[in-house]
Amino acid sequence: MSEEKRIYVVVAETVDTPNGVAVQPCGRIAAQCAHVVSQMQVFRHHLAAPEVVDIYGLLKPSTTIVLAARDSK
Fold first, then answer.
1. Does residue 44 or residue 2 have the better pLDDT?
2. Which of 8, 36, 60, 73 has the largest count of CB atoms under 10 Å?
């Protein structure tokens, strides 16, 4: 039985800046998650390891788990 591959993304709902606290709207959080997962998939494809790529050179499926952190601390 093969083990399911997962990509965990942790993103802050608020970010501390020198000017105060910036609250990230849902769309921005989703965009950040999409960018991270996209970069991870590119990295996985360049690995070309048997546990990541099938015999046709296609990426094996993976599950993305998004975790929200209350703030950047």
1. 44
2. 36
Where residue 66 falls among pLDDT bands split at 50, 70, 90? Answer: very high
Instruction: Tell me the one-letter amino acid at 50.
Output: P
Token pair recorded at residue 42: 């590119």
What are the extents of the domains in the chain? 5-69
Sign of the CA dihedral with 27 first, then 18, 73, and 21 last: negative
Q: How far apart are CA 23 and CA 46, in angstroms?
A: 35
- Cβ count near 38 (within 10 Å): 10
Residue pair 44/36 in contact (Cβ under 8 Å)? The answer is no
The model carries a pTM of: 0.71
